[in-house]
Amino acid sequence: MSTTAPIPDTTAKVTFMFYEVRGLNFTMDIEYQDSFNDYSNDVYKDVYNTIISNCRKHFNDCFVRELIFTAGSTIVEYWIGSYVMDDLKLPNIETDVNIDMSSKYPIIFDSNQQLQGTSVGDLFPGRRVTITCGPPPPDLKFGSDLKADWKLDGALISNTAQYTISTKGEFSYLTASFNKAAEALKCKSDIFGDGYPGFIAKADCGEGKIGEITAECLASGLYGNIQDNCVLKEVQELFLQSEELTSTLLPTFVKKLGEVTVSSSSKVTQSPATIVKIVNILENVATSANVSVNETSMKDVLLTADVLTRKDASLSWNTINNNNVSLNETSKEPKKSSSLLLESLETITKALQEDSLTITTPLILLNKTTFTDTFNGNFNSSVIVDIPKHEGGKKSLTVITFSSMDTVLLPRSKDNSSTDVLNGKIVLIQSSELVNNISITFNTSNDTLGNPKCVFWNFRLFDGLGGWDDEGCLFVNQKTGTVSCNCNHLTSFSILMSPSAPNIPALTYITYCGLAISMISLIICLIIEAIVWGEIRNHSTSFLRHVSSINIALSLLIADIWFIIGAGKLESQSACLAVTFFIHFFYLAMFFWMLAAALLLFSRTILVLSQGLSDRTMVGIGFTLGYGAPLIIAAITIGVTVPSKNYIQEKDVCWLRWKESRTLLAFVIPALAIVLINLVILVTVLFQILRSRLRVNAAQADEKHILLVIAKSVAVLTPLFGLTWGLGVGTMLDPNNKGLHIAFAFFNSLQVHLRLVTIFFFTLAAHFLLAFLFTKLCFSVPLKGFFILVFGTLLDKKVHMPKHKMYS
Q: If you ran DSSP here, which 8-state letter would residue 418 be given?
C-alpha cells in the first residue's frame, strides 16, 4: 500500500423519494481490465462483497446501488444507499472498506490527513540527511505491519550507496547523501556560507530587525541577486498594530510612528523593506474606518513621509520601483509602493479637520485655507496656484508641496519616454468642492530642459503602478525659470521636461543636404581612387596610404547610409537595434582605419624595423585593426546591454544609450583614445619632418612628399575644426540659441537627432577633428565628402600622374 497527498472530499450526495445515496471511491494499484465490470468477475465480486458487508455494519438496510471500475490504475466508484443515511458514518465505512480491500489488493489510499515527516532544511553538497516518514494516521487502522515505498520523481528508491532505507515500528527512514563534486561549492561567504550555482542562501538580519537576507550563488562563484527583506523590529510591530487601528488609538499611533521613523531615519532610508512596511502602515491609517486627523496627527504623518522622500532614500526607492524587494508578510506589491505612498497621503489629507493651518517639515509644506470667489497663493516660493472666479460659496483648499517626492515617483509617463525628467516640485491640491479651472506655475529645477508637459499622477496607469498623465492639463507658457499650466481637475501635479533643441526646420534641411553632398563626394573619391589605383600601387608607402584612405571613405559612406536609415522612425525595435549596431561598427571602423594610417605614418617616418614588412603583411595588419577591433567592441556592447534593454536610446532614436547605462562610452572611449594617440603621432612626425633638411635623392623626395601631404591638410583644416568645436561648446552653454544650432548643424551633418546635439557633441567633435588631422578626410561638415575628395584625392600629385601620361 502507498499513500499520496490529501485530496478534497469527493463524496457525492443524491436524495431519492424514500432513500438517500452517497458516492465514494478508492483506487486499486492494479492494471485496469474491462472485465472488472462483469458481475461474474472475481474482482467485481470481491469488491462488491467487501462494500456491502462493511456498509451493513453501520446501516442495516444498506445496499450497493452502483459499482463501476474505470482506468487510472483501477478506480473503483461505488454508490451506497440507505433509508436512514447518516453522513457522519461515511468516513468509517470508507476506512473499513479500504482496510479490508488492502488485505487482498494493493490500494492507493488518498488520506485527508498529512503524513508526518521531518524538515530536511537546506541541502549542501557532501551533506547526509535523514528524512522520516510516519506514523500513519491512527484512524486508518492499518496496524504496525507496514511497508513504506520511497519514490524520487516517480521512480522507486532502493537501498544503494547513496540511499539507505530503514523501518522502526510505525516509522520509515530514508537517509540520502548529496555528494556532488567538491568543486560544485563555488560560492564561499562568511555571511551566506558555501553554496553551489543556483543555491539560494539565507542570512539573519541582525539585532533589531525581523526578516531575512537572501542571495543566489551565481555561476561566477559570487553571491548575487541579494535581497534585503529585513524590517526594523519597531516598524514591524507598528505594522501589526495598524491592522487593528481605531480612531481613538490613531493620534497615539501616528505619533509613535513619526518618532520611530525620525529617530531611525538613517536605517529607514537604507532599508527598502522597511520603507515598504511604513508605506503599508500609512495605507492602513488612510483606510481606517471613520478616521479623522487633527493638526498634530497630520504633522506626525508628514514627518514620517518627510523621511521616506529624502534624497538619501533614492537607492532604496530604485530597488523598490524595480521590484527587487519581496515581502511575504504583506500582500501589497512592493513595486506599487511609490504610488501607494502618494495615494495614502491624499486620503489622509482629506480627513484633516481644521479649516486653516500651516504645517512645515524640512521637505514638505502643507497649507490649508478657505476662499470664496478667487484664490492666488505662492507656496514655498516654488509653486503659484491661481483659481479664477469660482461660484459655490466658501470652500477649503489644501496644498501640499513636496520638495523631493521625485525621489519616490518615477518620471514614468503615458508615452513612455526615456528622456523625460521631473523638473519642478510635486504639489498635491485638494478642495472641499469641485474645481474645474486652476492655473499652476512651477519654478523649474533645470533651465536647460525643454518640451514641458503639464501632468498629474494617474494611479490607474500601467496596471495600477501609476504614472504621469496629461489628460485635462494644458501647457500655457514657459518663461525663464518657470512653466505655467492650466488643469480642469485637482490631484497631484508636476511638470515633465526633457533635453531639447529649438524646433528649427532649417536644421533638418542643412543636415540632409550636407549629407547628400558628402555622400556624392565620397562616391566620386572612390571612383577616382579606382582609376588611379594602378599608378599608386607602384610605391609601397603611397599604396598603403591609399588603402587606408579608401577604407576610411568606404566606412564613412556606409555609416552615412545606415544613419539615414536610422534617422527615419523605425517601427521595429529589432530594426533599430540593427541600425545602431552598424552605425556603431562603421564609425568605429573609420576611427581604427585612421589609427592604422597614423601608425603607417609613424612607422615609415620614425621606425626602421617596419621597412622589412611586406605590403601584404601591412595590409593584413590594417584590416585586422580597421575592422576586427570595431567588430569586437560593437559585438560585446550589443551582447552585454541588449538583455538589460540598455543598448539604444528611446524608440525614435537609433543610437547608443547614455543617460541610464552610459553605453555611449563604447564609442567615446575608443574614439578619444585614438584622438590622443594620433595627436602624439602627428606631433612626433611633424617634428621629424621639419628638422630633416638634408639633401635627399629623388626616391626619398617622393617618400617625403607623401608624408607632407598630411601636414598640408592639417594647416588648412585645423581652423575649420576648431570652429566646429567652439560651436559645439556654444550649443551646450546656450541650448536655446537658434543661431548656434544652425551654425553647428552646418558644420556637423552627422548629428543623428537634433534633440541629442548636446549629448553627442564631444564624441562627434573628436570624431570630426581626428579624421582630417590625420587622413585629410573632412566629415564634420555637410561637405565632408567634398573635402575628402579635394584634400584626400585631388590635391595628391599621384592622382594627376595618369592624366599627364595620357596627354604626353
A: S
